[in-house]
From TrEMBL:
The lineage of its organism: Bacteria, Bacillati, Bacillota, Bacilli, Lactobacillales. The gene is trmH. SUPFAM superfamilies: alpha/beta knot, L30e-like. Pfam families: SpoU_methylase, SpoU_sub_bind. This is 23S rRNA (Guanosine(2251)-2'-O)-methyltransferase RlmB. It comes from Furfurilactobacillus curtus. Keywords: Methyltransferase, Transferase.
Length: 274
């Protein structure tokens, strides 16, 4: 990969803006829920710890029978409850008649992310999410990351959504397959990643056309906050800025949409057609 670290130190950048997300329910400190039929089924087929299974009374869908069988095989407690109970537990979200009560979601370490890349015999390809606030954005990014073979995601502990039931449902089970590391300081983490050989790329209105991006080496891609973009101090640590060209009237993209385009641009350079 060409050495562009010095060439991009003085690149002028312009912030891409997006409307902030509306507030959503967040996980409590003692436990959380996985909701929706496919996320629940994926969790029961994984090593996810489960405290209890709640199934809506009166429903007879095949997938619910399969969920009940999986729960029985694991020796889990199954409670059949009215729909109103599930509505209350999930703050009115679309639970599809099934809810898992689980311990708080486990976070990975940076070493776990590197271990996943090593197990795949591939150069690391990580995402760094700078203060993503909307759980639907995080869930969608997890889903795309799993589809494209991303080895892990890094999020900050403060001023950002964590792994919640909304994130889990939106990810449709991908949360079980993508390790997520939660760190105190993204700037310090980026320095650590650079010391371990990664090239750091950011997203902005000014930068290299993302279609020219070469992500074949050890790579980390930063996706900025929905409204503020990448924080100024973090932006200074980026090796190269990437931009998505736009010719329409709306000069912004949802964070998860922008992430998906860039993730697959990276995928394309790593897995070119032959």
């Amino acid at each position: 990969m060409p050495n562009k670290r010095q060439a991009n130190q003085h690149r002028h950048t312009v912030k891409r803006r997006e409307e902030p997300a509306k507030s959503e329910p967040v996980a409590n400190e003692t436990g959380d829920f996985i909701i929706g039929r496919h996320p629940v089924e994926a969790a029961l087929n994984s090593d996810q710890q489960v405290n209890k299974v709640f199934i809506q009374e009166g429903l007879h869908a095949d997938i619910l029978h399969n969920i009940a069988n999986l729960a029985n095989q694991r020796g889990l407690i199954i409670s059949t409850v009215p729909k109103q109970k599930l509505d209350q537990m999930t703050a009115g979200q679309n639970h599809q008649g099934v809810v898992l009560a689980i311990p708080p979601f486990d976070y990975a370490s940076l070493d776990d992310l590197f271990a996943k890349a090593e197990a795949a015999n591939e150069p690391p390809f990580f995402l760094i999410l700078d203060s993503i606030e909307d759980p639907h954005n995080l869930g969608s990014i997890l889903r795309t990351a799993d589809a494209a073979g991303i080895h892990g995601i890094i999020i900050p502990k403060r001023r950002a959504v964590g792994l919640t039931s909304v994130v889990s449902k939106t990810s449709t089970g991908a949360i079980e397959h993508i390790p997520v590391a939660r760190v105190t300081n993204l700037v310090a983490t980026v320095k650590t990643l650079k010391d371990r050989g990664l090239w750091i790329f950011g997203t902005d209105m000014a930068g290299t056309d993302y279609r020219r991006w070469d992500a074949t080496g050890p790579t980390a891609l930063i996706i900025g906050n929905e409204g503020k973009g990448i924080a100024p101090l973090l932006k200074k640590s980026v090796d190269e800025m990437l931009t998505i060209p736009m010719i329409g009237q709306v000069q912004s993209l949802n964070a998860s949409v922008a992430a998906s385009l860039l993730i697959y641009a990276g995928f394309n350079s790593r897995h070119p057609l032959t």
